User: Which sequence fits this backbone?
């Protein structure tokens, strides 16, 4: 193996649990602050997420109609101060629940020490993904992160500064999972042939099907669904998915029926010792890359 491309959410860490519990903590504090019911706030959050095509849009509560009515004409900096308590509740819950899966740090460190190049791939917003890796203490293992393109405004605090870190490369939206061209482009950008690479991810429909079609060794992290039904329901409640997105996902599931990984693992540490399965070499193209800063 020359290149390891790893999915981030639910492959290196449980994304669902911390996001859902942070969101519930924030919405609870926001409802108490504004003297309103929680249900409309969830509906408004979903509308904001749909507008931005992302369920994890930074400072989404600033755009909620209920918030704008409560603080008419407030600047983002003023809202940052006014909503400090709900935002702090989100941060506190995230700090409590965001944890690496067992063996992730040690395995990434061992692979890097062996000379393997490691890059991340996610459909989360780049700055958010990079911050998670930094908070979890594994940013140093990565040569780069490939993230889906998105439009981010400036941070609401004028004193905030981008701390930099691992390069974040933008993937065009038309190359989102499970487009195999995306993975072939990542390999080409990292100067690795597909047959020299391994892709590890938790989704058979998106990760494994994409890797197999790209001619890359596909490793299924089948442990990546260890969250409660309540937490998953919270994520669905504010999901950015439109009816078209839901229909697209249904088609993907049909297309991926019968897909099988080259390897299946029950812990990230099982990557050690896995060698790529040789596959037919597909056509290589270079990804359209652009480094971005934190938002």
Assistant:
């Amino acid at each position: 193996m020359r290149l390891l491309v790893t999915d981030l959410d639910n492959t290196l860490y449980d994304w669902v649990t911390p996001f859902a519990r942070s969101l519930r903590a924030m919405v609870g504090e926001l409802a108490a602050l504004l003297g309103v019911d929680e249900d409309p706030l969830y509906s408004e959050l979903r509308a904001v997420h749909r507008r931005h095509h992302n369920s994890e849009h930074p400072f989404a509560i600033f755009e909620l109609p209920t918030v704008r009515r409560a603080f008419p004409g407030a600047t983002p900096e003023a809202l940052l101060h006014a909503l400090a308590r709900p935002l702090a509740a989100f941060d506190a819950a995230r700090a409590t629940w965001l944890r690496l899966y067992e063996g992730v740090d040690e395995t990434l460190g061992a692979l890097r020490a062996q000379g393997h190049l490691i890059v991340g791939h996610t459909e989360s917003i780049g700055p958010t993904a990079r911050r998670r890796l930094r908070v979890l203490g594994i940013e140093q293992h990565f040569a780069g992160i490939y993230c889906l393109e998105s439009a981010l405004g400036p941070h609401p605090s004028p004193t905030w500064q981008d701390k930099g870190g691992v390069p974040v490369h933008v993937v065009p939206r038309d190359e989102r999972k499970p487009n195999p061209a995306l993975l072939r482009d990542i390999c080409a950008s990292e100067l690795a042939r597909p047959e020299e690479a391994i892709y590890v991810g938790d989704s058979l429909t998106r990760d494994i099907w994409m890797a197999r079609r790209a001619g890359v060794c596909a490793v299924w992290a089948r442990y990546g669904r260890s969250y409660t039904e309540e937490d998953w329901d919270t994520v669905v409640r504010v999901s950015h998915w439109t009816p078209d997105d839901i229909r697209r996902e249904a088609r993907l599931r049909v297309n991926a029926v019968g897909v099988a990984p080259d390897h299946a693992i029950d812990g990230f540490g099982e990557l050690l010792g896995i060698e790529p399965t040789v596959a037919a070499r597909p056509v290589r193209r270079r990804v359209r890359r652009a480094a971005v800063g934190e938002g």
Notes: The chain has two domains: 3-15+99-271, 17-97. The radius of gyration is 20 Å. Residues 3-15+99-271 form a domain with the Rossmann fold fold (CATH 3.40.50.1000).
